[in-house]
């Protein structure tokens, strides 16, 4: 037997089946929202994983194409590796869930979210987050939840809860907020330059909805919740901590971590670890595997005390001070655009590549509204950027997430396809990393795009602020521009990107059980101040606006707008006409469903010729107009001319010359390119052309 729990969420029914499926999982919730169905399960191993110093949580979001009535493409005809969208959704679910598991828990936990049916008006992503929370909360896995998630849109200036597909298409904001019952725990957003005030209102509107859902979840837990199992704690023995403090005093640890050079600090910590290993080697060999984690916690306690109580940061900066900044463009001579942004020991080199719209990325997923994208941002994090040696195995979830965040930040300022008919790819190469490379990627991308001649509306910059909290909600400090150490040992990484006009992207990660409103509001104030400084003082002096033209090595694109009903004339039977134009002119041509023809090439002469040919194909012949054609066929009664691929006309023998012509060959030969005048329609309704009347019509036009 199973039981169904139901509530109304944003005007649509949300129901949860408990005990209906997946009975062998530690916890399972069969979620229904409208016609969207997601199976959410939580499972945990019986024992901790040996040899690790982290909580091994795995969050999976599985997209099955049967959910939208599709069969996967390709030869295999089954789903392969997770799509980027699925990976990003997994990360969004992971971030609010992870802080609520015990810090010393080392059992493997998997939260699986299987999307089985999709109603485009009822987001499977948000239901997966709620379902993961329910499955974990009713399981016997230790968890300090539940949480809930809500999406907020901004349509015609009004905030909309869990917007429908139509509302999402018209929305100026895509905000996801996760909360516990008391506090906000995760924020993810993309926005069309929305103000901080509107964003804060949206966040707390989402929080209100989350509280309602959590109340609903608590009723389910009350009836079906299992007793949480005991587990083998991996906490560091207090005896070891005391022994370490006897050898390395708090003052010595403070000196070790107080450096603005990452390599110096890491060298100091290695010396301490070696010293402790030597001290414990004989009497306490069982402590040796724990030294790394113990020193990590010692560093964390030291750094947090320095910042919160002494207002001292490890690199000596003031609380609101940004690390030294630098911006450059045009580092790489043959690429279409390049820009480099440096913030302390964080450095990103971004490269822009332009291509015809035919090279835009095609997407095959559950969202029917999004089948492709013309702007792609990719982020790479090689091991040398942090002084390590490791082979490259392709982008991981972190790289995909950072690339998507920077992409989301730039999309709102990109020109439309009509304004700039290019596919655009930017690649952020991490040269050096010591905190907040994703926001450095935003800055470098903005520089690179402007250097490439992409007419973005405004420059975009990004910055991250951190947080160190004390024992009470009022005891905290918000830090501007956190470096790696402050991220590792702090409580928050709050990234905000935007323009002078407003916010374009947000990503907030925290390690505690939520943020108060005062912390969030202060974070917005400090990110706006820092963003404004970066835009005005660092980026604008290097390049104030996009270049007026693309670079000499970039492809050139011109557009021709035709009536959509004439697309078939330009394409021709089986592509014969358009392929002939491409071959003749040495260009590439794309046509969209609205009749926008994009002609891409390197030589202006060939592009202009292709444009002229397309205009000829779609324009009706007019009396008195002069046309250029090539003789393609000769008959006894006249010559046939091709004015453009697939568009021909005939000059009667009587119209070849003012004097009488015996044969067509006396005047023309195959392959001749000549000018002829259009005489209009003859008695049979056919278009007639004349060679002998060209000068007369030219003189008439000149008058």
TrEMBL record:
<dbReference type="Pfam" id="PF00013">
    <property type="entry name" value="KH_1"/>
</dbReference>
<dbReference type="GO" id="GO:0006396">
    <property type="term" value="P:RNA processing"/>
</dbReference>
<comment type="similarity">
    <text>Belongs to the polyribonucleotide nucleotidyltransferase family.</text>
</comment>
<dbReference type="InterPro" id="IPR027408">
    <property type="entry name" value="PNPase/RNase_PH_dom_sf"/>
</dbReference>
<dbReference type="Pfam" id="PF03725">
    <property type="entry name" value="RNase_PH_C"/>
</dbReference>
<protein>
    <recommendedName>
        <fullName>Polyribonucleotide nucleotidyltransferase</fullName>
        <ecNumber>2.7.7.8</ecNumber>
    </recommendedName>
</protein>
<dbReference type="Pfam" id="PF00575">
    <property type="entry name" value="S1"/>
</dbReference>
<keyword id="KW-0808">Transferase</keyword>
<dbReference type="GO" id="GO:0000287">
    <property type="term" value="F:magnesium ion binding"/>
</dbReference>
<dbReference type="GO" id="GO:0000175">
    <property type="term" value="F:3'-5'-RNA exonuclease activity"/>
</dbReference>
<feature type="binding site">
    <location>
        <position position="487"/>
    </location>
    <ligand>
        <name>Mg(2+)</name>
    </ligand>
</feature>
<keyword id="KW-0460">Magnesium</keyword>
<feature type="binding site">
    <location>
        <position position="493"/>
    </location>
    <ligand>
        <name>Mg(2+)</name>
    </ligand>
</feature>
<keyword id="KW-0479">Metal-binding</keyword>
<keyword id="KW-0548">Nucleotidyltransferase</keyword>
<dbReference type="InterPro" id="IPR015847">
    <property type="entry name" value="ExoRNase_PH_dom2"/>
</dbReference>
<dbReference type="GO" id="GO:0006402">
    <property type="term" value="P:mRNA catabolic process"/>
</dbReference>
<dbReference type="InterPro" id="IPR015848">
    <property type="entry name" value="PNPase_PH_RNA-bd_bac/org-type"/>
</dbReference>
<comment type="function">
    <text>Involved in mRNA degradation. Catalyzes the phosphorolysis of single-stranded polyribonucleotides processively in the 3'- to 5'-direction.</text>
</comment>
<dbReference type="GO" id="GO:0004654">
    <property type="term" value="F:polyribonucleotide nucleotidyltransferase activity"/>
</dbReference>
<dbReference type="Pfam" id="PF03726">
    <property type="entry name" value="PNPase"/>
</dbReference>
<dbReference type="InterPro" id="IPR020568">
    <property type="entry name" value="Ribosomal_Su5_D2-typ_SF"/>
</dbReference>
<dbReference type="InterPro" id="IPR012162">
    <property type="entry name" value="PNPase"/>
</dbReference>
<keyword id="KW-0963">Cytoplasm</keyword>
<feature type="domain" description="S1 motif">
    <location>
        <begin position="624"/>
        <end position="692"/>
    </location>
</feature>
<dbReference type="GO" id="GO:0005829">
    <property type="term" value="C:cytosol"/>
</dbReference>
<dbReference type="InterPro" id="IPR004088">
    <property type="entry name" value="KH_dom_type_1"/>
</dbReference>
<dbReference type="InterPro" id="IPR012340">
    <property type="entry name" value="NA-bd_OB-fold"/>
</dbReference>
<dbReference type="InterPro" id="IPR036345">
    <property type="entry name" value="ExoRNase_PH_dom2_sf"/>
</dbReference>
<dbReference type="InterPro" id="IPR036612">
    <property type="entry name" value="KH_dom_type_1_sf"/>
</dbReference>
<dbReference type="GO" id="GO:0003723">
    <property type="term" value="F:RNA binding"/>
</dbReference>
<keyword id="KW-0694">RNA-binding</keyword>
<dbReference type="InterPro" id="IPR001247">
    <property type="entry name" value="ExoRNase_PH_dom1"/>
</dbReference>
<dbReference type="Pfam" id="PF01138">
    <property type="entry name" value="RNase_PH"/>
</dbReference>
<dbReference type="InterPro" id="IPR003029">
    <property type="entry name" value="S1_domain"/>
</dbReference>
<dbReference type="InterPro" id="IPR004087">
    <property type="entry name" value="KH_dom"/>
</dbReference>
């Amino acid at each position: 037997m199973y039981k169904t729990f139901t509530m109304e969420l944003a005007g649509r029914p949300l129901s949860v089946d408990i005990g209906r499926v997946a009975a062998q999982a530690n916890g399972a919730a069969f979620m229904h929202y409208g016609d969207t169905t997601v199976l959410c399960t939580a499972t945990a191993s019986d024992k901790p994983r040996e040899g690790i110093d982290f909580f091994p949580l795995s969050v999976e979001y599985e997209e099955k194409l049967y959910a939208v009535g599709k069969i996967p493409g390709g030869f295999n005809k089954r789903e392969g590796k997770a799509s980027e969208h699925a990976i990003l959704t997994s990360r969004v679910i992971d971030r609010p869930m992870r802080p609520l598991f015990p810090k010393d828990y080392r059992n493997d936990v998997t939260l699986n979210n299987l999307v089985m049916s999709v109603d485009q008006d009822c987001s499977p992503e948000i239901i997966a987050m709620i379902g993961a929370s329910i499955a974990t909360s009713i399981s016997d896995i230790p968890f300090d939840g539940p949480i809930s998630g809500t999406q907020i849109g901004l349509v015609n200036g009004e905030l909309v809860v869990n917007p429908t597909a139509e509302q999402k298409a018209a929305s100026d904001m895509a905000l996801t907020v996760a909360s516990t019952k008391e506090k906000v725990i995760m924020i993810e957003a993309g926005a069309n330059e929305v103000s901080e005030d509107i964003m804060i209102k949206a966040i707390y509107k989402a929080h209100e909805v989350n509280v309602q859902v959590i109340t609903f979840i608590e009723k389910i837990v009350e009836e079906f919740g299992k007793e949480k199992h005991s587990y083998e704690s991996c906490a560091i023995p207090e005896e070891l901590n005391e022994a370490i403090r006897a050898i390395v005093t708090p003052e010595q640890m403070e000196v070790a971590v107080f450096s603005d050079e990452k390599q110096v600090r890491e060298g100091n910590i290695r010396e301490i670890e070696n010293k402790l290993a030597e001290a414990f080697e004989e009497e306490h060999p069982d402590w040796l595997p724990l030294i790394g984690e113990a020193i990590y916690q010692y560093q964390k306690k030291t750094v947090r005390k320095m910042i919160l109580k002494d207002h001292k940061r490890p690199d000596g900066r003031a609380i609101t001070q940004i690390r030294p900044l630098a911006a450059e463009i045009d580092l790489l001579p043959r690429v279409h655009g390049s820009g480099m942004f440096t913030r302390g020991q964080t450095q990103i080199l971004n490269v822009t590549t332009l291509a015809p719209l035919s090279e835009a990325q095609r997407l095959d997923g559950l969202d029917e509204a999004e089948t492709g994208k013309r702007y792609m941002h990719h982020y790479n994090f090689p091991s040398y950027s942090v002084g390590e040696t490791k082979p490259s195995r392709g982008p991981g979830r972190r790289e995909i997430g950072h690339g998507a965040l920077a992409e989301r930040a730039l999309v709102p300022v990109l020109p439309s396809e009509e304004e700039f008919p290019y596919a655009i790819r930017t690649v952020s190469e991490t040269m050096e990393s010591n905190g907040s490379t994703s926001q450095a990627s935003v800055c470098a991308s903005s520089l690179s795009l402007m250097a490439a001649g992409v007419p973005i509306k405004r420059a975009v910059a990004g910055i991250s602020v951190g947080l160190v909290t004390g024992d009470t909600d009022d005891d905290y400090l918000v830090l501007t521009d956190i470096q790696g150490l402050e991220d590792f040992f702090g409580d928050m990484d709050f990234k905000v990107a935007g323009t002078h006009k407003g916010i374009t992207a947000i990503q907030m990660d925290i390690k505690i059980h939520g943020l108060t409103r005062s912390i969030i509001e202060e974070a917005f104030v400090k990110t706006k101040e820092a963003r404004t400084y970066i835009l005005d003082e660092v980026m604008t002096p290097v390049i104030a606006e996009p270049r007026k033209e693309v670079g000499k090595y970039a492809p050139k694109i011109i557009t021709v707008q035709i009536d959509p009903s004439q697309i078939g004339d330009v394409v021709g039977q089986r592509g014969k006409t358009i392929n002939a134009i491409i071959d003749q002119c040495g260009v590439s041509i794309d046509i969209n469903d609205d009749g926008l023809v994009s002609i891409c090439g390197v030589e202006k002469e060939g592009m202009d010729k292709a444009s002229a040919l397309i205009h000829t194909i779609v324009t009706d012949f007019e009396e008195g107009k002069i046309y250029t054609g090539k003789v393609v066929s000769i008959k006894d009664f006249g010559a046939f001319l091709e004015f453009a691929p697939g568009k021909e006309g005939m000059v009667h023998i009587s119209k070849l010359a003012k004097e009488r012509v015996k044969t067509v060959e006396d005047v023309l030969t195959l392959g001749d390119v000549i000018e002829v005048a259009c005489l209009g329609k003859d008695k049979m309704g056919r278009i007639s052309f004349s060679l002998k009347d060209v000068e007369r019509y030219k003189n008439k036009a000149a008058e």
